[in-house]
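Blinded run. Sample ID left blank on purpose so nobody reads anything into the name before looking at the predicted structure. Input follows.
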Amino acid sequence: MNKSKRTTKRGEPMKSRHLRRVATATVAISLVAASCGSDDDGAAEQASCEVGETDGDLAIFNWAEYIDPEELDAFSEEFGIGVTMDSYDSNEAMQPIISAGNSGFDLIVPSSYMTGIMIQAGDVQPLNRDAIPNLSNVMDDFADPAYDPGGKFSAPYQWGTTGIALNTAVVGTDFEPTWGLIFDPELAGEYSGQITLLNDPRETMGAALKYLGYSLNTTSQDELDEAEALVAAARGNLAAFDTDQADELLVSGETAIAHGYSGDMFVQFLEADDPAEFVYFVPQEGGAKWIDTVAIPADAPHPCSAHTFINWLLTAEHGAALSNWNYYATPNEAALDGLDEELVVFITDPNVVVGGEDSLEQYVDTGDFEINYTDAFSQAKG
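Blinded prediction complete.
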């Protein structure tokens, strides 16, 4: 698909349940409960499903702008069931809704560290791998992850990086590729009111930690306190904490510097009047390389429909279609030959990760310390 000629806005919600206020109110309580774990991992029962079986309409809870609505329509038509999708802007907004039970969702898309948390809490059910034969298409690097050994509870969805995107028409081309563009008062002050940070505890605290030279998975309260102070100090130069629209605000000219996800940024660049004006990079201090997964809530009303959707998504055709629309890298080996050439160039460009691959970290579950990240972010936002 030619991204510059879309007639439908990316990720346009199929329906809205106004979930964010509920999520914000329950994040702290839910993360405390999740960090305690469950006495019996995998206590939820595995669904008894056949390949291609459906047991009702499919309700998906996903990140915004992360799958082509036309792909959902195609699945709906092929299997004769309805598909609805609601969106969230952080793992910490999604998790308490699922953990509370009776969410009505059949499929969720947690990041790897949150997948581990939800497995420990018993929030997701084990996959019936016999109903998902296309799991054989998953690359070896993603088949036995530390957050879910053996892939018993999840399948990989997409992977990418988190960094900075900027408008060179405003910032110029002779800039230092540093998180200081957001956190250094002198550098950021030049673009006051034109900067966004993600509305996400782990991502934004992680960016501050990397700028300070610390791990984005630190369990040092002193280091996290420094990061909290840094984010709080940066607040005066921000236009917003925004996950859903950071890419659009940048390309529309409302902002000049945006903290954001690789694929979101690149696909928006292609929709700009002059894509060459925009660049994305992971700063020299390093950043996050993340993996998002698909998992089925423990009390999903229609687990067989969810299994069938996962299997469908892991085909070569639909795995390629997913990446060619959202411009994130695929863990689906069968999909590689179907990727757009411009996407392959972007995800293999060595200039994107300024500090090199060794500067990247994957988020991990920090156990009881997770609530500290949420608290620090809340305090920093004011």
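Unblinding after everyone has recorded impressions. The mean pLDDT is 90.
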